[in-house]
Amino acid sequence: ENVEKEEKEAEKKGILEKILMVEIKEKDVEEALEDLELELLEADVALEVVDALKEKIKEKLVGKKVRIGTDKEKIIEDAVREAILEILTPPRKIDLLEEIRKSEKPYVILFVGFNGSGKTTTIAKLAHWLKKNGFSVVIAASDTFRAGAIEQLEEHAKRVGVKVIKHSYGADPAAVAYDAIQHAKARGIDVVLIDTAGRSETNRNLMDEMRKIARVTKPNLVVFVGDSLAGNAIVEQARQFNDAVKIDAVILTKLDADARGGAALSISHVTNAPILFVGIGQGYDDLMPFDEKWFVERILG
Ligand code: GDP
């Protein structure tokens, strides 16, 4: 008799639960996302990435049952944070120091990115950081195209105390990189950083050039350097490089000059590669490890 009573109670409770539950409708989510959409666009997240994010959030929420009285806004806000974090947290995490330690010498890093993105400065920052962590470094001046590129790189390298391997302007960038690797092999140098050109010309295709350098050097890591101020353009840039030479990791520059840094979200979405560092100034120490959680708050304002 007692059992029967308990069963009845349970059934009553079940019915009550059902009445107390409401389903989140597409309309609720769309309304809530209107503000978010504006916020993200203002933070410089590319439009196609905002759309993809909205779909992801809808998938998480539409049809979900919540108890009457729960704060729907809070639920949606949590889903937004979760979706952004998912985009910013790619499948593969990279512990660069650990990878270099366990790699055969030299560990080769190929840097790609358009002119003005901060590539040369970033290479010097990374060389500085690697040296601080006890690794020896050599840099390949494989931008043999832009006037002044080699001297500029040498100036940076001198300041951080790293040797540059160079040929003359117009030389084959892949041959320069190859020489740098041979130089490192002969001397037991731990890391080779390859600087590359950042602009196409009519008689010279930048992506073909990147493919060739990658084929010749077989880099352990391809790093895309992107300017966080580039806004929507960064999506197209990252996609082009990713198609030519698969991007393994990203360094996002000029975050100190950027209001919100939505570019991080755009790049992660397009490349599915982790953001290793962010550049936060022009000094050689202005390189900071990327922290997704901190970033979500920054983007959401
Ligand atoms: P590259 O053409 O891609 O090699 O670009 P450079 O390394 O020459 O950098 C272009 C400009 O951006 C230079 O004036 C750099 O000092 C500046 N720059 C690079 N990284 C940062 C950064 O994180 N913050 C700021 N504020 N400026 C940066």
UniProtKB/TrEMBL annotation:
Record has rRNA processing as a keyword: no
InterPro entries: AAA+_ATPase, P-loop_NTPase, Signal_recog_particl_SRP54_hlx, SR_rcpt_FtsY, SRP/SRP_N, SRP54_GTPase_dom, SRP54_N_sf
Keywords noted in UniProt: Cell membrane, Coiled coil, Cytoplasm, GTP-binding, Hydrolase, Membrane, Nucleotide-binding, Receptor
GO biological-process terms attached to the record: SRP-dependent cotranslational protein targeting to membrane
Domain SRP54-type proteins GTP-binding: 274-287
Coiled coil feature spans: 1-46
Compartments in which it is found: Cell membrane; Cytoplasm
Pfam families reported in the protein's UniProt record: SRP54, SRP54_N
Keyword Cell membrane among record annotations: yes
Membrane topology per record: Peripheral membrane protein
NCBIfam families given in the database record: ftsY (TIGR00064)
Family, per entry: Belongs to the GTP-binding SRP family. FtsY subfamily.
Protein's recorded name: Signal recognition particle receptor FtsY
Organism, scientific name: Pyrococcus abyssi (strain GE5 / Orsay)
